[in-house]
Design brief:
Elements: E1 11-15, H1 19-31, E2 35-39, H2 42-52, E3 56-60, H3 72-81, E4 90-94, H4 98-107, E5 112-115, H5 120-130
Parallel strand pairs: 1-2, 1-3, 3-4, 4-5
Helix pairs in contact: 2-3
Length: about 140
Protein backbone atom coordinates (compact mmCIF):
# COMPACT_ATOMS: atom_id res chain seq x y z
CA UNK A 1 0.00 0.00 0.00
CA UNK A 2 1.49 3.34 -1.01
CA UNK A 3 1.54 6.33 1.28
CA UNK A 4 -0.59 9.27 0.08
CA UNK A 5 1.18 12.58 -0.60
CA UNK A 6 0.90 15.16 2.20
CA UNK A 7 -1.88 17.74 1.88
CA UNK A 8 -3.12 20.56 4.07
CA UNK A 9 -6.06 18.35 5.07
CA UNK A 10 -3.61 15.95 6.72
CA UNK A 11 -1.17 18.44 8.26
CA UNK A 12 -0.24 17.66 11.87
CA UNK A 13 1.15 20.25 14.29
CA UNK A 14 3.54 18.67 16.84
CA UNK A 15 3.94 20.81 19.98
CA UNK A 16 6.68 19.69 22.37
CA UNK A 17 9.64 21.35 24.04
CA UNK A 18 11.84 18.28 23.48
CA UNK A 19 13.41 18.47 20.01
CA UNK A 20 14.04 14.71 20.01
CA UNK A 21 10.33 14.01 20.50
CA UNK A 22 9.42 16.52 17.79
CA UNK A 23 11.93 14.99 15.35
CA UNK A 24 10.86 11.41 16.07
CA UNK A 25 7.14 12.12 15.72
CA UNK A 26 7.73 14.25 12.62
CA UNK A 27 9.74 11.52 10.90
CA UNK A 28 7.20 8.82 11.77
CA UNK A 29 4.22 10.92 10.66
CA UNK A 30 5.91 12.00 7.43
CA UNK A 31 6.72 8.36 6.64
CA UNK A 32 2.95 7.72 6.78
CA UNK A 33 2.23 10.58 4.35
CA UNK A 34 1.38 13.37 6.78
CA UNK A 35 2.61 16.91 6.40
CA UNK A 36 3.97 18.26 9.67
CA UNK A 37 4.85 21.49 11.35
CA UNK A 38 6.10 22.02 14.89
CA UNK A 39 6.18 24.39 17.83
CA UNK A 40 8.19 24.24 21.04
CA UNK A 41 5.91 26.28 23.30
CA UNK A 42 2.42 27.70 23.63
CA UNK A 43 3.00 31.00 21.84
CA UNK A 44 4.57 29.19 18.87
CA UNK A 45 1.68 26.70 18.89
CA UNK A 46 -0.95 29.45 18.63
CA UNK A 47 1.03 31.15 15.85
CA UNK A 48 1.50 27.85 13.97
CA UNK A 49 -2.21 27.05 14.17
CA UNK A 50 -3.08 30.46 12.72
CA UNK A 51 -0.49 30.25 9.94
CA UNK A 52 -0.33 26.53 9.12
CA UNK A 53 -3.98 25.56 9.74
CA UNK A 54 -3.27 21.95 10.77
CA UNK A 55 -5.92 19.25 10.70
CA UNK A 56 -4.80 17.94 14.12
CA UNK A 57 -2.60 19.16 16.98
CA UNK A 58 -0.37 16.77 18.95
CA UNK A 59 0.25 18.60 22.22
CA UNK A 60 2.57 17.94 25.13
CA UNK A 61 1.24 18.95 28.56
CA UNK A 62 4.36 19.95 30.46
CA UNK A 63 6.86 22.60 29.46
CA UNK A 64 9.81 23.81 31.55
CA UNK A 65 8.64 26.72 33.74
CA UNK A 66 11.80 28.69 33.01
CA UNK A 67 11.06 28.54 29.27
CA UNK A 68 7.35 29.36 29.26
CA UNK A 69 4.62 29.76 31.82
CA UNK A 70 2.06 28.00 29.60
CA UNK A 71 1.30 24.34 30.03
CA UNK A 72 -0.62 22.24 27.52
CA UNK A 73 -3.90 22.95 29.28
CA UNK A 74 -3.45 26.69 28.83
CA UNK A 75 -2.55 26.11 25.17
CA UNK A 76 -5.78 24.14 24.71
CA UNK A 77 -7.72 26.94 26.41
CA UNK A 78 -6.24 29.52 24.02
CA UNK A 79 -6.81 27.37 20.94
CA UNK A 80 -10.46 26.89 21.89
CA UNK A 81 -10.87 30.69 21.94
CA UNK A 82 -9.61 31.13 18.37
CA UNK A 83 -12.26 30.91 15.65
CA UNK A 84 -9.77 29.25 13.29
CA UNK A 85 -8.69 26.68 15.90
CA UNK A 86 -11.67 25.90 18.10
CA UNK A 87 -12.66 22.82 16.08
CA UNK A 88 -9.18 21.40 15.48
CA UNK A 89 -8.86 18.03 17.27
CA UNK A 90 -6.15 17.95 19.93
CA UNK A 91 -4.32 14.76 20.87
CA UNK A 92 -2.36 15.01 24.11
CA UNK A 93 1.05 13.35 24.29
CA UNK A 94 2.66 13.36 27.70
CA UNK A 95 5.44 11.75 29.66
CA UNK A 96 3.51 12.50 32.83
CA UNK A 97 1.40 10.06 34.75
CA UNK A 98 -1.89 9.35 32.94
CA UNK A 99 -3.77 9.35 36.25
CA UNK A 100 -2.76 12.98 36.71
CA UNK A 101 -3.50 14.28 33.21
CA UNK A 102 -5.80 12.01 31.18
CA UNK A 103 -9.16 13.07 32.65
CA UNK A 104 -8.18 16.73 32.79
CA UNK A 105 -7.07 16.58 29.15
CA UNK A 106 -10.43 15.09 28.13
CA UNK A 107 -12.29 17.77 30.10
CA UNK A 108 -10.20 20.44 28.35
CA UNK A 109 -11.26 19.08 24.97
CA UNK A 110 -8.57 16.58 23.98
CA UNK A 111 -9.89 13.81 21.74
CA UNK A 112 -7.18 11.30 22.72
CA UNK A 113 -4.31 10.86 25.16
CA UNK A 114 -1.00 9.07 24.56
CA UNK A 115 1.76 8.43 27.04
CA UNK A 116 5.36 8.83 25.89
CA UNK A 117 6.97 6.95 24.33
CA UNK A 118 4.10 7.04 21.87
CA UNK A 119 2.94 3.85 20.15
CA UNK A 120 3.19 5.20 16.59
CA UNK A 121 0.93 2.59 15.02
CA UNK A 122 -1.83 3.35 17.53
CA UNK A 123 -1.30 7.11 17.11
CA UNK A 124 -1.52 6.93 13.31
CA UNK A 125 -4.70 4.85 13.51
CA UNK A 126 -6.19 7.37 15.96
CA UNK A 127 -5.30 10.19 13.57
CA UNK A 128 -6.82 8.27 10.67
CA UNK A 129 -10.01 7.67 12.68
CA UNK A 130 -10.26 11.39 13.55
CA UNK A 131 -9.78 12.29 9.87
CA UNK A 132 -12.46 9.78 8.86
CA UNK A 133 -10.12 7.25 7.27
CA UNK A 134 -9.92 3.48 7.87
CA UNK A 135 -7.10 2.13 10.07
CA UNK A 136 -3.93 0.88 8.45
CA UNK A 137 -3.30 -2.86 8.53
CA UNK A 138 -0.97 -3.92 11.38
CA UNK A 139 2.70 -3.63 10.55
CA UNK A 140 4.48 -6.92 10.12
CA UNK A 141 7.23 -7.19 12.70
CA UNK A 142 10.52 -8.71 11.65
CA UNK A 143 11.28 -12.12 13.13
CA UNK A 144 14.97 -11.26 13.44
Amino acid sequence: MSTPPPTSSNKILVVDDDPVVVKALTMKLQSKGYATCSASDGAEAVKAVREQKPAIVLLDITFPPDVVSWDGFRVMEWLRRLDEAKNIPIIVISGGEPEKYKDRAAQAGAVAYFRKPVDTEELVNTIRRILGKPPLPPEIKSLR
